[in-house]
Amino acid sequence: MTLLDTSVPTVTIGAGAPSPEDVVAVARRDAHLLIDPAALEGMAGSRGVIEALAADPQPHYGVSTGFGALATTFIDGDRRRQLQLSLVRSHAAGAGPEVEREVVRALTMLRLSTLLTSRTGARPVVAETYAAMLNAGITPIVHEYGSLGCSGDLAPLAHVALAATGEGPVRDGHGIAMGAANALACAGIEPLVLEEKEGLAVINGTDGMLGQLLLALADLDLMVTTADVTAGMSIEALLGTDAPFAADLQALRPHPGIGASAHNLTRILDGSGIVASHRGPDCTRVQDAYSLRCAPQVGGAVRDTIAHARLVASRELAAAVDNPVVTPDGRVESNGSFHGAPVAYVLDFLAIAVADLASMAERRIDRLLDPARNHGLPPFLAHEVGVDSGLMIAQYTAAGIVSELKRLASPASVDSIPSSAMQEDHVSMGWHAARKLRTSIDGLSRVLGIELLAASRAQALRAPLEPSPATEAAAMLVSQSAGPGPDRFVAPELEAAASAVRDGHVLAAVEHRIGRLSHT
């Protein structure tokens, strides 16, 4: 054993629900996991119930029978270890590209969390092995396709379980692909030998879709507030007004998300010389376009959708998802808690919200570039009109992304494909909802990055009028590459701007200047 690196965060996990922040810390920051000893004691107690049933000559589902459509087939005691391993091997049937490391780490930690509830009947060694794999940085290779979201994320979880037994491919802490047996040996981890009920316990859960929901919520907490920043920059650069964002007007429609977004916009535009320049009685504009004036209504609705999704995630974090489960009074009961519908619905809902937020941002980008609507700015914000194209094609890129996001907003959770000889005749497709949401969030970051570039360039063209302190701070992040001037290779600028949005640099720069904004 090596000494724990004190620069790495430490997370203690027990029988209770882990926090979303703890899951993200393990998934993204390689936080070191410690297990509460009381949770291991609880697991040992519930394991006694399973062992008693295993000795019973009467069949008990998941303990001494087959699975799914084979639930009535009795398995003799001397074949049950083979039954558990066969279950995991057969269910590790994923296909397609590798799933991201952070997703695999999140789903592994969440399965560990359910094991520690003592409701699965697994032995403490199963939980200890999962924690050891996470701490060693061993990441089983999980594939894009294979889960229908019922009975949970079977194939992804089976690939993790197979690695714990020393079979199948993994990546070590350095990202090097190797066999699981080799990786476990190098880390000093004994491969698991699964006993009765444990094959089901390690694959029967919503951990893949829940893990991706938690990661998405962390991303969106950052991104929806960044969208307030880029919206404020566009409003300012288009000579819009901050008057509609007044608190008393927003109070007439008391959705909390709308109020928070409007308050952010008021703060972001505070002190803007550009806004002040056209605030007087000489201004002939009656009201701004919807993509400017209604930014809080869309951004706020996204916030409230996130709040609902966060509530669902908190409930799922507190769940013990397995089938059958060991109840506190010692019963072993079949149930339907593995069905992913509650998580799948909010994953789909978030994809709708993300698409709409990006769509509104794209309309502002287009308005910034159109000389008929941008109030005196050059066409496409070009340096030499006719010679330079400016950001013309950057708007095409944003439009193409938004079109894709609209397709991804079509819900996966309404598409049920029966499986397991009609035993599993209705499935959630929650894994697919999670996968498309990850793509949607990446697209949103790119559209907001393009808006950041366009609004920054438009602000600079308003000189000598001064932007607000907040929007100036955001513009400075891209000022060297995105400022006015002759055409240049724009793709690297788009990527850098998207990274500034995605990594939180835009929001951090603004909050460093004016203080913390309202988050979700």
Describe the structure.
The protein has helices at residues 20-29, 37-54, 80-91, 101-115, 124-136, 154-164, 180-187, 198-201, 207-237, 247-250, 256-269, 273-276, 290-293, 295-317, 341-369, 392-408, 430-461, 469-476, 479-482, 491-502, 505-514, and strands spanning 10-13, 32-35, 95-98, 139-140, 143-145, 169-171, 177-179, 325-326, 332-333. It contains 21 helices and 9 strands. Helix 1 (20-29) links the parallel strand 1 (10-13) and strand 2 (32-35). The chain is mainly α and 520 residues long.
Entry summary:
The protein is mainly alpha-helical.
Biggest sheet statistics:
3 strands, antiparallel
| Integer-rounded radius of gyration | 26 Å
Uncertain segments: 1-5
| Portion in helices | 40-55%
Strand composition percent: 5-15%
Name the average pLDDT.
93
Order of helices and strands: EHEHHEHHEEHEEHHHHHHHHEEHHHHHHH
Q: Gap between N and C termini, in Å?
A: 41 Å
What is the global morphology? elongated
- According to DSSP, the number of beta strands is 9
- Helical segment tally? 21
- Specify the structural class: mainly alpha
Biggest sheet, spatial arrangement of strands: 4-6-7
GO molecular function: histidine ammonia-lyase activity
Catalytic activity: L-histidine = trans-urocanate + NH4(+)
Protein name: Histidine ammonia-lyase
Keywords: Histidine metabolism, Lyase
